[in-house]
Specification:
It catalyses: S-ubiquitinyl-[E2 ubiquitin-conjugating enzyme]-L-cysteine + [acceptor protein]-L-lysine = [E2 ubiquitin-conjugating enzyme]-L-cysteine + N(6)-ubiquitinyl-[acceptor protein]-L-lysine. By secondary structure, this protein is mainly alpha-helical. It has nine helices and six strands; from the N terminus they run βααββααββααβααα. The radius of gyration is 42 Å and the shape is elongated. The N and C termini lie far apart (124 Å).
Length: 224
């Protein structure tokens, strides 16, 4: 759905590269087997050129999801108003006319002009100017441009994530500062403990002062 130029398809190599963007640990071998399973079950179509595109079944059954998820990428058929991933479009710049192949063939049986811009499709070689929708609209190098665009998007997302991470330390610093203030009261008991240790030598001094009375007793005994 994100293929440029309304190609709505992706090469097998580009599809396998998408594994790198998944959060799971799926290997490319498993991814290739999964793609083959989707093709076998009719969810995807694989062309002779090896390009994958959504099948008619997928477009019909997942139409609501596709419209919601890829609102800016999906295009509608001007005739039946259903989603278009393969068909024809008007060549006039800014004209929004897009049709399924069968809707275009049915419309052309009775009309020669574009239903939107009224351009005469039968004049000159205008029929050859009609733009294709789907794999026929694929141009060489589109996968590389899509890959580059994806990288730029991821870099922007990473940049936003870095900004959020830079903002987080401010809050943590405040918490550290608050924690520093809270840690000051416990330092007081430590000071009191030091005071008790200083008092110990005072008691020892008192013990040293006790001998003088003994000397006095000895003198008194001599006098007697």
């Amino acid at each position: 759905m994100l293929a440029p130029n309304e190609a709505f398809c992706v090469s097998s190599l580009a599809a396998l590269r998408e594994v790198n963007s998944l959060k799971s640990s799926m290997t490319k071998t498993v991814a290739e087997a999964t793609l083959n399973s989707f093709v076998a079950k009719g969810w995807l179509m694989k062309s002779r050129r090896g390009r994958y595109s959504l099948s008619t079944r997928t477009v019909l059954e997942l139409q609501t999801y596709l419209r919601t998820t890829y609102e800016n990428e999906v295009i509608e058929c001007t005739i039946c108003m259903e989603l278009v991933t393969r068909g024809t479009g008007c060549f006039t710049p800014h004209c929004k006319t897009r049709m399924h192949t069968h809707c275009f063939n049915h419309y052309r049986r009775r009309n020669n002009a574009c239903p939107s811009c009224k351009e005469d499709w039968t004049a000159g070689n205008n029929l050859t100017k009609l733009r294709p929708v789907g794999e026929a609209a694929f141009r060489e190098g589109q996968d590389q441009r899509r890959r580059a665009r994806r990288r730029s998007t991821e870099e922007q997302e990473d940049g936003e994530g870095d900004e959020e991470e830079d903002a987080e330390p401010d809050g943590s610093q405040e918490q550290e500062q608050d924690g520093g203030v809270k840690e000051e009261p416990p330092s007081q008991p430590n000071g009191r403990g030091k005071g008790k240790r200083r008092a110990a030598p005072v008691e020892e001094v008192d013990d040293e002062d006790t001998p003088p009375p003994r000397t006095q007793q000895r003198r008194s005994s001599r006098r007697g």
